[in-house]
Amino acid sequence: MNVREHVPAVSGILSVVALALVFAAALQAIPQSLLPRAPELVLEAIPHVNAVLSATAVGTIVVGMRAIRRGDVARHRAAMLTTTGLFALFLVAYLYRVALLGPSDFSGPPLVEGVIYPGILAVHILLAIVCVPLVIYVLLLALTHSVPELRETRHPTVGRVAAALWLISFTLGVVVYLMLYVLF
């Protein structure tokens, strides 16, 4: 199959597969016997490493957005591919940890625990889910089209939306980390 001619369909298939894996890990539906068990020190370090990956991704998204506004396609491409790599590392580490240990418990003050934290977490998760197909779509367009051709595709429009939502999701992810591991 020629991916270039079927970017929406391939994006849809890859999105379904990716989100199925995400939900399987998040809901602990993957048998733990299939996963190698890392030492506790590694499992405990994952949230902190992921916070650094997320904060770095915020920076690379901003760099990528600024670069494309200035017409610097090479820098935009490098920044967005770096963001994609950071996201992949984050996701593998996060899903590995949550598949083994389940989600982290939050215990802050009642107002924060009952309203603020769940609200921030819900928006973060919703945006992360929405970003998956958008990012896959713009990435496939970028990988299958030349720069002049990209201007004639939905890459610029969908890319702006994907980058903005991705930026918010990563930022909220850092906020969630701070609430879980630093503030409370």
TrEMBL record:
Top-level taxon: Archaea
Keyword Nucleotide-binding belongs to the record: no
Positions of transmembrane segments: 45-66, 78-96, 116-140, 161-183
Pfam annotation, one family: DUF420
Entry keywords, A to Z: Membrane, Transmembrane, Transmembrane helix
InterPro entries tied to this protein: DUF420
PANTHER family per record: DUF420 DOMAIN-CONTAINING PROTEIN, HYPOTHETICAL MEMBRANE SPANNING PROTEIN
The protein, known as: DUF420 domain-containing protein
